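[SOLVED] Need 3D model of a two-part complex

Original post:
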Amino acid sequence: MSGKREIDQLSGVDTTGHEWDGIKELNNPLPRWWLWTLYATIVWALGYIVVFPALPGISSATRGVWEWSSRADVRQEMALVAQDRQALDDKIATLDINAILADQDLRGFAVSAGASAFKVYCSQCHGSGAQGGPGFPNLNDDSWLWGGKPEQILQTIAHGVRDTTSTETRDSLMPSFGKDGILTAEQVTQATNYVLQLGGLEHDTAAVAAGTAVYADNCAACHGDKGEGNQDLGAPQLNDAIWFYGNSEQQIAAQVRQPKHGMMPAWQARLGESKVKQLAAYVLSLGGGQ
Amino acid sequence: MSSHWEAVSKAVSNTILIDRPVDQQDVKAVNTGAKARGTLYAARQKIFPRRAEGAFRRLKWIIMAATLGIYYLTPWLRWDRGPYAPDQAVLLDMANRRFYFFFIEIWPQEFYFVAGLLVMAGVGLFLVTSIVGRAWCGYTCPQTVWTDLFLVVERFIEGDRNARMKLDATAWSPRKLWLRFSKHVIWLVIAVATGGAWIFYFADAPTLLVSLVGLQAPFIAYATVGVLTATTYVFGGLMREQVCIYMCPWPRIQAAMLDEDSLVVTYNDWRGEPRSAGTKKAAAAGLVVGDCVDCNACVAVCPTGIDIRNGQQLECITCALCIDACDSIMDKIEKPKGLISYSTLRDYNHNMAIASAAPGAIDPRRIRDGSGSFVSGIKEFDWHIFFRLRTMIYMGLWSLIGVGLVSLLLMRDRLEVNVLHDRNPVAIKLSDGSVRNGYTIKILNMIPEPRVISLSIDGLPGASMSIAGLGDVTGRSADIPVDPDKLRALHVFVTVSPQLLKAGETSFHIVVSDHQSFETDTYEAAFEVPEPMK
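Solution:
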């Protein structure tokens, strides 16, 4: 404040000595408690700095005497959640898959837990929506190589397909009819046209007639007389609308000549019984299971 | 003006003041004159409001009883909603996300009712303020009501203004200690009851009270009670007018909502000035004086410690106690009431013009006829100010929102369906060539009764549905039991047979209906068939 005191004529209040464009600031003093409140907040701030993380350093901040951190809080909360889930996990591990599915609450938990596990372990091949892709089965549809019943799906997830680390793994092998010279190139074309006809696709009628015998001799043992497939052997159904490796003549012929075989890891050893059952529950919830 | 009446009153007090018709209170307004010079911070000046009696004080007692009664008792009212819903009349059930208000139950998505009520409260405040100024501050603001309540306790224990001032000035003694102690204990009891009442709005009151007393209630309940106890005690008991003057933004906002036709508490200096210590004596001495006998009764009763005779001020909460105080003095000296009154700026200016020969020169003779009553030109309170364009617009707006909310309430759905189309994947081809889309369908049963809701699809030839977890559902409709007052989420698959597939997007309807109440709700959904799947 300036030494010279000036009293405003109209209000009788003295001015602070500040003036802007001829407008003078009157000194209507703030209440003193307001000032004390300011000091109190400063004291509070000092206490805060001592107790809580506050002052930034180069790689981290001061930790404060209470050593509080939001990460520790999260860890603690996660531990509590895990504790709550353990009981459900244990229950799922001991129960039969059909019993889990029959229990409304347990199924809900298993499906949710399975959904998040699916994103971590399965989505790389089957896609985030389990819609699959060429060579990787779509799990939403009703076509199943190794069976779509709960226990069949569980078996596939638990022990994998063609995974030698598990003795119970799904295993089968389709001969390389073309490459190994079992069938001539012409016979391959005939068999291919027969398969096209089974699937209701465009085909060469003459080749189909010739292919009937080729199919019956070489293919029907696994894929069935009418192309209905065989889930025990993982032999795909050929008379439906779902084509694992594509439905063009070329794609089918390539599969007859030298078939590709998919491989899926056995998950039970890695994830445990409970997680595998949760994954099965999730896959069944996609709507294609039987 | 001021120099004139100062000269007159000085003359009066120096010469003819022998006896006053009424005692003069030794009190000064806290917001004038005594400001600390040269410092930026001033100590608070203690205020000891004197008890007032009169029409406005009675009105304030009634409003106080009503508002406190509503606040403390509402959570204890019961309302039967059947076995599936709580029986508390007013309940904000945060855990279950339901708000109950007597016969109304609101779900979170119906929060616009609360928003509408808040808008109504806002417009209502505009309306009230444009008519009677800061009536909210003076009569119904919790700060005012609780301060009044705390003052009742203070007066009961320590006595009225003079006794309290005396007690405040004396040195500490066992008696003073005892009086102060009991006052603060009662204040704290009120504060705890106030903080306690708040939490009963959020849980079943009787159950919560038992657990609260038994130290079984959740921490948040005690924390809330603690914080509200502290604020009630500090604001109502210790800080009082400081809250209104320095902490509350509302005086500034409301002051901007007044106009020249709003009623504000006004000192009618056109009939009060020049002040004198005694009108009769002054008249005997041949002096012309106004009705104000400078008794300071208006200052002594003021809860914010101001002198209303200095004009309209930010500190004035328009509690109207100065009107009561002045009216009782006017009765005593046999003058008409209303030297301090609710008056509009327009009326005030009109009357002032009659009273003043020249601006600032008030001559009390100009407003009175020979018999001592006011001349006919003097304007007094007139009901017509209630019906101005501005108030009508506010009233219209307020009623419009009110009518809108009530009609919404009467027409609102108690059965709703929300649908989310699966996006990953959008469509699935099945082995027989048919295509399937998935939908998350949420059925909202918004009444506290269990219901069986029929869920069906309308349109989309060749479609049938199945529901995850409900194996027996096939066809185009299903009966779904839904728990009382609950939402049921279903994952529904709709499959269209290969012969009737149409590539692209086909719209159809998902319908929920209650066959007993005939309520129904429809969602227009889309069925997607990507080109390669056709």
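Edit: The two ends of chain B are 96 Å apart (CA to CA).
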